Amino acid sequence: MKALHFGAGNIGRGFIGKTLSESGFNVVFADLNQAIVNAINNKREYSVKTVGIDTYKITNIKNVTAINCNNSKIFEEIVSVDLITTAVGVNALNNIAIIISKGIMLKIKKQCVKPLNIIACENKIKASSFLKKAILEILPNKHHHYLSQYIGFVDCSIDTIIPISKHNQSNLSIIAEEFKEWIVNLNQFKGVIPKIIDMQLSNYLNPFIERKLLTLNTGHAVAAYLGLIKNYKTIQEAIQDPKIRIIVKYAMEESGSVLIKRYNFNKNHHLDYIKKIFLRFENNFLSDSLERIGRNPLQKLGIEERLIKPILGSIEYKLPYSNLSKGVAAACHYLNVNDLESIKLTSSIKKEGIEKTLRNICNSKLIQEAICCIKKSYYEILREIK
User: Fold this and answer.
1) pTM
2) Is 29 annotated as a binding residue?
3) CA 339 to CA 238: how far, in whole Å?
4) Which residues, including other chains, have CB under 8 Å from residue 28's CB and lie 6 or more apart?
5) Which end of the chain is more exposed for a tag (fewer CB within 10 A), N or C?
6) In the chain, what is the straight-line distance between the N-terminal and C-terminal CA atoms, in Å?
7) 42 is in an annotated binding site
């Protein structure tokens, strides 16, 4: 079995690539960073240090290769592989769709009927379905039947923390979290479902996707934006601040109340899940930068995303959301000159005001009461900064 994985970064090497290699796949990484491509091809292996709370294990991942996404030979790779996975970030999926579309066109030209399954492992609800839609918009209509017959787009929920590591020619090693969760929709595969270690098959994926997005990702984002206001650098620094810690805890409990209502989760089990996430945040082996966690704030403020979606759920079920609102307000204060989305957000607030900016971002889905709650927190933060 052979797999092509787009994205040779932290999640790509530390989780997906590692898991596929240990499952018996020949793994080919695809990346735009030629230095990473060269390093992988020169060494053909790398090490992963998997850490728990007070333990660690080192695993050597061998016989891996890489190709640049701009190399035309990548289309031949798409024809030859059994599985494609991605961990490139949501904003890169449209570009990946172009590449995969050309590979599928080559499969059709070669009359290849070997099933191909594609799993987009991104922080987006039903990312593989999103990728499928993007590919369908590119492929001529006459080839849509081939896609539905031979190409599976498998939605998943993926949960792990892997801090960004700096790449260089001599060191591809990476640190990864012991905790990992990869749950896939078993009904979306084409052909035989591949046997992948620790990959769980599910008939109904939504509860797992939302549990992760509205707990881990929500807590991560709230801690990051509040921490950045205080000039903290890492998630550990932010979560150790007593004021931030209590807001993050209550924000995750607020989003948890939505999940409990929507999916009939056991309340005590979900509160235990939140406690485990705090232990993961506090793990010094997994020091993650707030700048990385907070990047692309406009995406994170989307109506199907980690900050606004739980507020909409709270409104739906008539539940409190004051701490989630503080997270949104903090996100609206985020400014990073190297982050185009943060610049756009700041510019919009300066030009249009916080209320109109929120309405534009949320497609007017937020009720006036929620906007007032966020505005109140926004100006409270502004006074503290001054």
Assistant:
1) 0.86
2) no
3) 21
4) 2, 3, 4, 5, 64, 65, 66, 67, 77, 81
5) C
6) 59
7) no
